[in-house]
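[step 3/7] fold_predict: job queued, chain A
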Amino acid sequence: MNTKDLLGHGLPVTLDDKALDRFERYRAMLSEGNKVANLTAITEDDEVSVKHFNDSLSLSLAVDLNKSLSMADMGSGAGFPGIPVKIAFPDVRLTLIDSLTKRIRFLESVTDALSLDDVTIINDRTEHAALSLQETFDVVTARAFAPLRMLIEMGLPMVRTGGILIAMKGPDVEAEISEAKHALEVLSAHVRAVIRHDLPLSMGQRTLVVIEKTTHVKGYPRAYARMKKQPL
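[step 4/7] structure written:
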């Protein structure tokens, strides 16, 4: 498969030449940035295309990203899934949240170099940022960030009523969903869908757990130490 096919494989995604050029420039910046900031252990071209880019774009299976919606990416790291989504769906209003300054500097350099508009970058712990971003976003997401019940407590407060939290997980999520039942009750939400996505080149399966917020519950998230010691 060529790069375009790898990025869009199995997804409702159409990439024009401008988007493909941005993905290639992003790939190059990842390679350079990795030398100083240890951004990712995945460095081979096909693996980056599949395990970072295609995986990130799988969000398109859960929500119509062609709409001008607002989205927050918790613990964005090197920019996944937020940056690939912004490249492929430029109308998305994106907020990236990460606590590590060197990753924030990388994200700032990427958004500047790729001329990505409507991107807000926040250098803070997610549970802190969430306190000032209550009921702000249509979609909040995270990939490889925290157990589901902690994602629910950190992410749902930032979701507007009727909006969704999308947890990007591996193939085995049943135990996490079961453990998160109490968190869903407390935060007034429910699992709308569980969507499976097979990565191209037999590189594994991903799962999107789509959680819809019914009403806003004040008082969350709690401090990280309390979340860790006394999970919902």
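[step 5/7] annotate
The beta strands are 70-74, 93-98, 119-123, 137-143, 159-169, 189-198, 205-213.
The two ends are 44 Å apart (CA to CA).
exit 0
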